[in-house]
Amino acid sequence: MSNPMEPLKSIQVILRQVVF
User: Domain of life here (predicted)?
Assistant: First the structure.
């Protein structure tokens, strides 16, 4: 866990799929 923004990007990708 050196990049705290790594999981954030994954969440954003999932959110985009859910929104669309």
Answer: Eukaryota
